[in-house]
Amino acid sequence: MSEFLAEIVGTAILILFGGGVCANVNLKGTLGKGADWIVISMGWGLAVMLGVYAAGNVSGAHLNPAVTLGFAIDGSFPWSKVVPFIIAQFIGAMIGATLVWASYLPHWKKTEDQGAKLGTFATGPSYPNYVANFLSEIIGTMILVMGLLFIGTNKFTDGLNPLIVGLLIVAIGLSLGGATGYAINPARDIGPRIMHMLLPIPGKGSSNWKYAIVPLLGPIAGGMFGAALYNILFKGIFNGFIIFAIIFTIVVVLLGIALNKAILKDEVAEIL
C-alpha cells in the first residue's frame, strides 16, 4: 500500500467512526439517540486510534492536514510530501462521510432538526464569535500537535502508540471541545461538509459555509504554532518556518476580528 492510499484509508476510517458516533447520538430513531458528550468524545478518540492502527505502519497516519503541516514545521516530515498527504486526507474524509450517510439512510428523513444533520458531518460553535472560535481551534490543535510530538519522544510497548493518541483526542474533546466541537482537523470538517452539501439528504438545510473558515484555518494555525512552540521550548530552535507559523497564527486571529465586524455584526457573542 502506498502512503497516499494509507492516508485515504486511515482518514476514511477516522470519519466513519467519528461521524458515525455523531449520527448515532443526534439522529432521530437511532439506538444511541440522546447519549452525551462523553460518548461523542470517546467515539472520536477510538476513531482516531483505529485510523492510526490502519495507516500508521505505512504513512505514519497523520490523517489531518494540521498534523502534516505541524510535522513539516518541526522538520520531521518533508515538505515535498505535504500536498499529496493533504489531498489524500480530504479524499478519505469525504469517503468516510459518505459511508456514515449510507449507514444511517432511514434516519435522515425522520430527523427534522437541520442542525443535527449538519452536526453529523461538520462542527459548529456554541457561541458564534470568530475570534473566540479561532482561538478554541488554535489551542486545541496546538495541544494535539504538541502532544503527538511529546508521545514521539517516549517509548511505549509495540502497538500502544495509537491507543495513547486516541486518549489524547478524548482528553481534548472532554476538556476543550465544548466551544466549537473541536474540529482540530481541516479534513475532518471540510471534507464531510462538502458531502453534506452534495449528498441527497432530505431537509438538510444550509451547510453553514460562513463558519467553515474556522475549522479550516484555525487547526492549520494551531498545528503549526504547536510545532513552533515545541521547537522553541524543547529543542531551542528558532528558524524561518517557526517565524512563519507564529505570523500565520496572529493573522488568523486578526482575521477573526475582521470577520466579526463583516459577517456576524450584531450576532456576535460577547467574549468579555
TrEMBL record:
Highest taxon listed in the record's lineage: Bacteria
Cellular component per GO, a single term: plasma membrane
TM annotation in the entry: 6-25, 37-56, 85-106, 127-151, 163-187, 208-230, 236-259
Main location: membrane
Topology class, membrane: Multi-pass membrane protein
Localization: Membrane
Keyword Metal-binding among record annotations: no
UniProt GO MF annotations: glycerol channel activity
Entry keyword set: Membrane, Transmembrane, Transmembrane helix, Transport
UniProt entry tagged with the keyword Transport: yes
Family (UniProt): Belongs to the MIP/aquaporin (TC 1.A.8) family.
Record's protein name: Glycerol uptake facilitator
Record gene name: gla
